[in-house]
Amino acid sequence: MFSYLFTELIEGYLNRSKFVASNRKALSGLGLLGKTVRSGSTALMFLFPDLCERRGLIEKGELLNLPVHLKWKLLVPWIVGVLLLFAMFIFWLLVV
Asked: Is 4 helix (H, G, I), strand (E, B) or coil?
């Protein structure tokens, strides 16, 4: 649900990013799946900002343009999803 509602709003704040522009161009025709992938790749930019700056995918300080409430709305679902996937994998190893 988040991907459908907020992906384009977040990308609007990051309009100078080459990474966001290329993802939007490549994945815009895929509907909800494309928005989910775009949202995930944007979340990775926030989780590893130094790597993205060194690679030239974003400009220095560009991620500071995004309001804090949108950062939380972007990152929390992805972090919770990864933690749940990890927990299910551990459960599978121990029980099955």
From this structure: helix
